[in-house]
Amino acid sequence: MLLVLLLLVLFLLVLLGFYVFVASPRNRTHQTFTAFVLCLALWTVKDIALWGFSARDGSAQWWASASFVIALALQYSLVVFAWVFPENGAVPRTRAAVLFAPGAVFVTATLAGLMWQDVRFVNGQFNLKLTPLAYAFGLYIYLVFAYGFGLLYAKYRNYRRELWGQQLGAILWALVLTGALTTLAAIALPLAGSYKLLPFATLFVLPGVLVYAYAISNFKLFSLQSALDQFRLFPIAYKVALSIAVVAVVSFLLLQIPIVWWSFSAGQTVEAWRRYLVFSVITALVPNLLLVALVIRIISRPLRRLTEAAVAVAGGDYGTQVALKSNDEVGLLADSFNAMSRKMAADIEALRALNEQLIRTEKLAAAGTLAAGVAHEVNNPLASISSLIQILQTRVGADAADKQTAEAREMLRLIQTQIARITQVLRGMTDFARARPPARAPLDLRRTLEQSLRLASFDKAFKRLRVTTEFDESAPHVSADADQMQQVLLNLLLNARDAMPDGGDLRITLRHDNNADELVIEIADTGPGIAAEHRAHVFDPFYTTKPAGAGTGLGLAVCYGIVTAHGGRIELAANNSRGTCARVTLPITISSD
Length: 593
Prior knowledge:
Layout lengths: L1 H22 L4 H26 L7 H24 L8 H19 L4 E7 L2 E6 L1 H27 L4 H29 L9 H17 L6 H7 L5 H29 L5 H45 L14 H67 L7 H31 L7 E3 L1 H12 L9 E6 L6 E3 L1 H18 L5 E9 L4 E8 L6 H4 L19 H11 L3 E6 L5 E8 L6
Parallel strand pairs: 4-6
Antiparallel strand pairs: 1-2, 3-5, 6-7, 7-9, 8-9
Helix pairs in contact: 1-2, 1-7, 2-3, 2-7, 3-4, 3-5, 5-6, 6-7, 9-10, 10-11, 11-12, 13-14, 14-16
């Protein structure tokens, strides 16, 4: 029973030390705790060797030597811990050299056997007789313990109102508990001649170690929910270690024990040893191959997926995602990579849109300068030509009936019609070149839409359309120029009319986007739509998809300038069913102008 308990303690110590160390390998606190647990594991191993396998009629001086040396190492690790925790500070080397110097003398005396007169089993009973030097050693051990305890208590008083103070308080309780139980089992009772609790000294240390680990890792061992939350992140090192441990135990139970039984069932002969060695080597390949497969599954395959995704992003496939769900570092890396890839794709798309906007703005500025110059140079001679045509029309009598006079009158009418067209184009160019800054005021876009619809309804072709509206009655006002916004909406309504010369459905919506705090106007028609190759250029000046003579290509360019001057966005997209959806987005900001 004792052997089983000691093996269980050894397993828990190794598991606890590994857990704390892997949680933060570079942290001095975790390193010191791991050293402390390693010393306790060695202490447990020596107890297992003595109480589980040693003969009950021989010397146990090796056990005494190991006990004295390990006890000294435990106290030194406690003091180092007191120096570095919780600030993760450095060890004061000079102070450590002074404090630890007597240890060299005591270790030498221990190895020389000067600490005891006799350590052996007599008639199956353990017997230990110490020398005065051993009592000096015990006094030194308690002085070192008291020094470490005092350091931690002083830090506890400094941090008692903080989280560090709670951790230090738990550690102090662990030291009191461990010190009291160890003193009782390993010192007080043996000095009184009772060694019954000596084999259980390691068991008495374990509760204090658990509290110790709980304090430095802030891992609530006694809360099931906290434990589940903690293990949601299961590091790769834990997975690999667990895989190795499971494979080792299973292969030992399923392979090694049967081979030992089969090989030595007839006795320990040369043939039995040869059989054991050969088949042990063969069966060792199976767990090794299994371990390789597990490591590939845990590490290699996820890293290969991440590498392929990284290469794809480097090749320009921005937004590439890794379909990898794992509760270890690779899983966190995959989530971070996916977030980075999405952010990169969004940033590049935003830069592309910004670049297109800058290019379009430059085009508008250049076109505006050109339009102003052309309109100025053409208007004056065109006005003169128009005046001369009007004079000629007055000279040609309206009642003249000869054929030549009638032909001259018709040609003058055609010339006047074309001059009117040119004048209309020049007026559009002048309006485009002289775009004024918006005179902003709180504006109800719902009323502006209704007024624009009323104006468009006077057009005969517009009356053939089936118009449906859906306005958000609670939509807030925006800061905008009423005349300019009506110009934009009327232009979009007439463009939708031109797209459906034989009639169709026109859907107009106004909604409030609460997430972005914007108003969105959508004018969707069921016309033939705009081809993808034309959609990127529809806002360019003088670019039009209408038949020759049906448009100047300045309407949408003017709309784009007005909407962007208001801090909004305008875009043409494919309608859900068919046709085109013109979308105007304006920020809800009431200007103080």
